[in-house]
Write a structure and sequence with these properties.
With 660 residues, the protein is an alpha/beta fold. Helix content is 45%, strand content 13%. It folds into two domains: 14-251, no CATH class; 290-573, Alkaline Phosphatase, subunit A, CATH 3.40.720.10. Strands 1, 2, 5, 6, 7, 8, 11, 12 and 13 form a nine-stranded mixed β-sheet that branches. A four-stranded antiparallel β-sheet has the order 14-15-16-17. A hairpin with a 5-residue loop joins strand 9 (504-505) and strand 10 (511-512).
């Protein structure tokens, strides 16, 4: 049996030793993070000075939280009571609120999915207990190993491996999970190294220069707690989801104030319009009587994939729509998540203006606007005698979830969380077109090709190649709809095709969607084909928020003044008009607005950052103008804040949810 090696007598109490070890563990975490950032996070425009500031605040924020954690663990060890399990329970309970803040959303989702919702409360409680106990357990395990000269290095190696892997697994998302792993790993390493840390601290403090260095390190840690970094540095910190600066941003930091007093532009669109009179349809009707309109949205279809002439041969239907219909070259979605984007599209309202709550059962349970009573445009069509039908390809697009609501008929062609394939989605639309008569008719469906893991087209090739092959699958299904529509209703059939959002392939170090509001996720194609259109490409900036007013206009139905989009029918007719409403985007408590045509502002309520980009000069959204052009930036941010102050949910006490 391996006998413990007895270390020389310590001058420090166990509580002090534990605290010093914990702080050393976080110092190791800070060092590991800086190295991993240098390897894995590309250097942003701004030069070495910005990277140096990034590293300095990364270390400061980590050390600051390490100091707080060290004080807590030191106090726990100092007053530890018997039996040991009672003390561990108290410490776990103290950790629980912090673990809930980091992992609560993820655990609630997983508990709902597991066993199809059965025992969800028990599963959630079990996951939270394990998470809350992880830090005390890490300390206990590390302390046990610290008793041996050589075995103490085993938990240190394990902890460092976890710290490094944390930066490269799920490297563009899940900040809560990354934070929980980092906290436990730093605690484990710190407990194992605590005897060495205590001796090193004693030796350091014995020298004058060492005392100065220790005080400087303490000051650095204090800065990480109480001093918010500049906006530009914050943006760099959060390019790495492993940063512990999330804690300071959530609890302490504030979104940057304007550089100077700025007045938002005067516009009725920036205020509450609900008391205004409804907007009458365009006087000249694009389709003279009984329109038949089909709206198709394609999941994750980037605008540049359709605009690129190199893809024309692969997408014959979309190419025909570009050439023979109206192609809006600068269309944007109101979100980078399907539920967020489509709910705003069908309500013609901003995400944060709607009331979102948990809805569904088992694997379908998530936050949706199921209890939001505001009108969706299909309900207005149905109320005015238009026949309406939707084919439901994803569970949350069924009527009761509130994302897409108000259709007279719905054909559910999916089962559970499975996304229905395009052919199955399109079949009921074609059947409904063939059975339609002289009545006006509106049909809608959402195609889920393309979507990760991009396995419904080519089975080989890069992700981007397989993604494009899935757009070709969607193109073929759209062609089926157009053929049926044009053959049956050549004089009154209109087809509208767009996407719920785009898709990232490494831009801004992210992949797939949901995670940002940059243009790779929010620029979408918008194509319209039918009688009475003036075929052309239109560069006017438009959005999916305009589809509701446009479709109401096509059917001669008034648009409620509270809708935040404008009809595109005048543009479809060939007229030149200037649209006045702002275009906003939301997701994960970020909000964005296009201002002055090519200026785009993004404000993040969680990270407490502001970004401003001139898309004409910087289409990749790499040069943040917030501090470079303060006057333009202030005006843009003032407009965004004015809009979201006026357009917010009316329920007392409600705050927009964080929808992962």
């Amino acid at each position: 049996m391996l006998a413990p090696r007895v270390d020389p007598p310590r001058e420090e109490s166990p509580g002090t030793s534990a605290a010093l070890g914990t702080f050393a563990g976080f110092a190791l975490l800070a060092l590991t993070s800086v190295v991993c950032i240098a390897i894995g996070v590309p250097r942003a425009p701004g030069g070495p000075g910005l990277r140096a500031a990034h590293d300095a605040f990364e270390i400061a924020c980590t050390l600051g939280l390490g100091a707080l954690s060290a004080l807590a663990i030191g106090a726990w060890v100092r007053v530890v009571a018997t039996p040991w399990w009672a003390s561990a329970t108290v410490f776990s309970a103290a950790c629980a609120p912090f673990q809930f803040a980091m992992l609560g959303n993820d655990f609630e989702r997983q508990a709902s999915v597991a066993l199809d919702g059965r025992l969800a409360t028990a599963i959630f409680a079990g996951l939270m207990i394990l998470a809350a106990a992880s830090v005390p357990a890490a300390h206990v395990v590390g302390t046990w190993f610290s008793r041996w000269k050589w075995l103490r290095w085993l938990p240190i190696v394990v902890a460092v491996a976890a710290m490094v892997a944390n930066h490269f697994v799920l490297a563009d998302d899940y900040f809560g999970s990354h934070g929980a792993v980092a906290w436990a790993a730093a605690t484990l390493a710190g407990a194992a190294i605590s005897p060495l840390a205590a001796r090193a601290a004693r030796a350091t403090w014995a020298r004058r220069g060492g005392r100065v260095a220790a005080l400087a390190l303490a000051l650095w840690a204090a800065i990480g707690v109480v001093v918010p970094p500049p906006n530009q540095v914050r943006a760099q910190l959060f390019r790495d989801p492993c940063t512990l600066a999330w804690a300071q941003a959530t609890a302490l930091w504030r979104t940057p104030s304007l550089h100077a007093t700025a007045i938002a532009p005067t516009s009725p669109w920036l205020g509450d319009r609900s008391a205004f009179a409804p907007i009458a349809p365009t006087k000249t009707r694009l389709v003279s009587s009984s329109p038949v309109v089909v709206l198709l949205t394609v999941d994750a279809m980037r605008a540049d994939a359709i605009a690129d002439p190199a893809n024309d041969a692969a997408f014959p239907m979309f190419t025909a729509m570009k050439r023979q219909g109206v192609f809006f070259t600068r269309a944007s979605s109101p979100g980078s998540q399907t539920a967020v984007s489509l709910s705003s599209t069908f309500a013609s309202r901003a995400f944060s203006e709607m009331y979102w709550s948990m809805h569904g059962k088992g694997e379908t349970r998530f936050a949706y606007p199921a209890d939001e009573p505001m009108d969706r445009f299909p309900a207005l069509l149905t109320a005015h005698g238009v026949k309406t039908m939707t084919a439901v390809s994803i569970n949350f697009l069924a009527d009761d979830f509130g994302v897409v609501r108000g259709f007279g008929e719905q054909k559910i062609v999916t089962d559970g969380r499975r996304h229905a394939v395009g052919r199955v989605v399109v079949d009921p639309l074609i059947a409904r077109l063939r059975s339609a008569g002289a009545e006006p008719l509106f049909l809608y469906a959402h195609l889920t090709e393309p979507h990760a893991p991009y396995d419904r087209g080519k089975k080989e090739g890069t992700e981007r190649e397989r993604y494009l092959s899935e757009i070709a699958v969607a193109d073929a299904q759209v062609a089926r709809v157009w053929t049926a529509l044009h053959q049956r209703f050549p004089d009154r059939g209109v087809l509208i095709v767009s996407a719920d959002h785009g898709e990232a392939f490494g831009e801004h170090a992210t992949f797939q969607h949901t995670k940002t509001l940059y243009d790779e996720l929010t620029r979408v194609p918008l194509l319209v084909r039918g009688p009475g259109l003036t075929a052309r490409a239109i560069d006017e900036r438009v959005g999916l928020i305009d589809l509701g007013p446009t479709i109401l206009d096509l059917f001669g139905v008034d648009t409620p003044a509270a809708f935040e989009g404008q009809s595109l029918v005048p543009l479809l007719e060939g007229r030149t008009v200037s649209l006045e409403r702002p275009l906003v985007i939301e997701g994960r408590l970020r909000r964005a607005m296009y201002v002055e045509g090519d200026l785009k502002v993004i404000e993040d309520d969680r990270r407490k950052t502001v970004e401003v980009y001139d898309l004409a000069r910087d289409p990749g959204e790499l040069q943040n103008l917030w501090d470079r052009e303060p006057a333009r930036s202030d005006a843009a941010v003032a407009a965004l804040r004015a809009f979201f102050t006026a357009h917010k949910a009316k329920r007392a006490g409600y705050r927009p949810v964080y929808k992962p």
